[in-house]
Structures are given as C-alpha cells and as structure tokens.
Design a protein that fits this description.
The chain is mainly beta and 376 residues long. The chain is globular, with a radius of gyration of 21 Å. The protein has 3 helices and 31 strands. It has a 6-stranded antiparallel beta sheet with strand order 1-2-3-29-28-27. Strands 22, 23, 24, 25 and 26 form a 5-stranded antiparallel beta sheet that branches. A 4-stranded antiparallel beta sheet has the order 4-5-6-7, with no helix packed on it. The N and C termini lie far apart (44 Å).
C-alpha cells in the first residue's frame, strides 16, 4: 500500500492511494435495497489521514468541500473535494475568527460555515473562503448545547437545555438571524438536571430550509421538526435496550466539595441522523463497540441495516447532487477521511407526465439511490 506524506497548513496528511476499509459484518440485507449501506459494506476508498487531536463535527457543501472543527486545538479546517486543505482558523481567544472550544459546525443557506464555540457560547459566521463575518451569542442562557442547525434566512435552531423560563423543559429552540428567541418545543425527557446536562438531548441536521431532523438521545425516534415547532415526520427507530442515563452516570461528591462522575462500561444510545436523497434518512445507533446504521425510505420504512465494527467506516455527510458519501474510519489514532459514490447522479429531464425527475435543482444533477431513471 503506497503512501505520500504531505505537509499542509501546520498539520500532516498521509494519502493512501489504495486504502481498504473493513466492516465487522457484511450485510445490509438479502435484497440489497440500500445503495448507501451496500456501498459502505463493499467500500475500498482512498482515504486521507490527518494529524488531528479531537474532531467534534463535520459539514459538507455541494461543491464537495468539507469543513470540520477540532475542539482541543482549537481550529476550523476547510478541505477541498479531493481532501486538500484549503484554509484554517486556529487562534485561541474571543476575538474575530478566534475560538475557545469549537464544538459543532453547520452550513448557512449559502453553504458557508457557522461554528458553535461552546467555550464562549457564541456562533461564529464565516465565508466559504475563510473570511470571518460576525459573532453572535446563543440568544438564551444554556446549561448544555448538544447541536445546532442554520435554516433559511440564517435562522438558527439549537438543541439544548436552557435555564431561561421561555424555553425551560424543551429540547429545541428557534431563533431569528440576530438570535432573537422565537419559540421552544419538544419536551425534554424526565431526568435529573445534573444527568441531563451530562447526557445531552440529541443531534440535529438540516432536512430542508425550514426543518431539521432531530435524533433524540432517548426514546421517541427521529423527528422532522419545522421552525414553527410542528413535527412533520417521525421515524420509529429501534428503541429496545437503550441505556438508562441515570444508570450510566454515577455522580458523587469528592473530598473538596466538588462532583465526581464515573461512567458505566457499555452504552447503547441513538446517534446522528443523516438526510439522503428523495426523503431517505440514515440513522445510527451506538451498541457498545459497534455502530448500527439503518436506512429508512421516504415512507419511513427501514430498507437496510449494517453493523460497523471498531475499524470500519462511518458516514459523516451526504451530497445529494453528486450522490457521494463522506466517510471516516473508526479509529482513535488520528482522522481518516474519504468519499464513496453510492448511486446514480441523474440529470433533470421532463417525465412522461409533464413533471420533472428527482434532482436537486432544474439545471444540475440529482441523486437516484435506487438507480432508476424516473423519466423516459
């Protein structure tokens, strides 16, 4: 296996020209209904290895760019579609373009990076070329922030626990472009306050310009929730055997009067949901040392499942224009990233019924995960 060592912008990159990924089980099902999971199962992608300390989140743009935040460095890194480093911000502080602890990242409607700095409790807005634009606060005081998303008109949705009476007891919180509070919704689970702060509420990803997919950290499945707080869709995922948060954390007082937290050995919990093409959704579930991925079609029916072992590949983002999946290798040693083609990218043409085939826009290409061209 050949490799090329390249130094870029202060961190080293190893490019594996003929990398190979292995999965713990070779599924997803007998009928091969899931093109995404079949691609993951059979994957032999070229991967780039990055010397990274602690990556906490990723976001991908339609031009193939990938952004990630490295919390403990701290820094924001922009990669090109072929994995080359384009630019980065890595200064510690609370000034323009500086971070305390970048924790989550999302893209604006113009596909530009927005970073949640959990250390300063701010959002930092950037241009796609790395130019810093503005810094805004979170709009409410939060005890914990699990995730966020940016919707149309730069409106913001935050998943977290706030101490403000306007949003207390709710998991999702909607804000205007200037972070003026709009409303809060989706009831929080009944957990002790200290446990809830440690456990978090779940992850959110953009489903449309006006809604997000909310993968709850407890029972209840994956919800598609609009900016107005309306649940427009619910995926009934496997809730069996989930870890009880009050059993997972053991909180005790130490001799100095502070709190000491210990953890159980095993964890079964829902993970992030990734929107695919044509209303499909890829969900994840942590099961001890393994991760179970399940794809649901536009009707909410599961069409395939795949178990990823400790050295396998995990999806981190999907591009519905090029029909490619960004993946990372599960490993504690650095970060390895690559892309997988998972279906046909078909051009938008007129159908026999006078409508248009499934595509992202009228001039570009779209993704047909089942490989079928709807127009003839």
């Amino acid at each position: 296996m050949k490799s090329l060592l390249v130094g870029t912008l202060g961190f080293s990159v190893i490019f594996y020209l003929n990398g190979e990924a292995s999965l713990s089980e070779r599924q997803p099902n007998k009928n091969e209904q899931s093109a995404v999971l079949a691609a993951l199962r059979d994957a032999k992608p070229s991967l780039r290895n990055y010397d990274i300390r602690s990556v906490y989140d990723f976001a991908s743009a339609p031009d193939g760019s990938l952004y990630f935040v490295d919390g403990r460095w701290p820094r924001l890194v922009a990669l090109s579609a072929d994995g080359e480093s384009r630019w980065q911000h890595n200064r510690r502080g609370i000034g323009p373009g500086e971070f305390s602890f970048p924790y989550r990242i999302a893209l604006s409607p113009n596909f530009e990076p927005v970073v949640l700095d959990i250390g300063s409790r701010d959002l930092l807005w950037f241009r796609s070329d790395g130019t810093f634009v503005r810094r805004t606060n979170l709009g409410l005081p939060f005890a914990v922030v699990s995730d966020f998303a940016v919707l149309a008109a730069d409106r913001v949705m935050i998943a977290g626990v706030t101490t403000d009476p306007r949003g207390a007891g709710r998991a999702l919180h909607a804000f205007s472009r200037d972070m003026g509070w709009f409303r809060s919704f989706v009831e929080l689970p009944k957990l002790p306050a200290d446990v809830l702060r440690l456990w978090g509420v779940g992850s959110i990803t953009l489903a449309s310009g006006s809604s997000v997919l909310f993968a709850q950290k407890t029972r209840g499945g994956v919800l598609e929730v609009s900016f107005d707080g309306i649940v427009t869709r619910q995926l009934r995922v496997d809730d069996s055997g989930l870890t009880n948060p009050t059993d997972f954390f053991k909180i005790s007082q130490n001799n100095s009067g502070g709190s000491q937290v210990t953890f159980s050995d095993s964890l079964v919990a829902p993970g992030q949901a990734i929107p695919l093409a044509r209303g499909h959704v890829l969900t994840s579930r942590l099961e001890g040392t393994q991760v179970r991925l399940t794809e649901y079609n536009g009707s909410g029916r599961p069409i395939g499942s795949l178990v990823v072992g400790q050295s396998g590949l995990l999806p981190i983002a999907f591009d519905s224009v090029s029909c490619r999946l960004w993946v990372r290798r599960r490993s504690k040693a650095g970060l390895a990233l690559g892309q997988l083609p998972v279906g046909l990218a078909v051009r938008r043409v007129v159908s026999t019924h006078g409508g248009l085939s499934d595509a992202k826009n009228s001039d570009g290409v779209g993704c047909a995960l089942d490989g079928e061209r709807r127009s003839r």
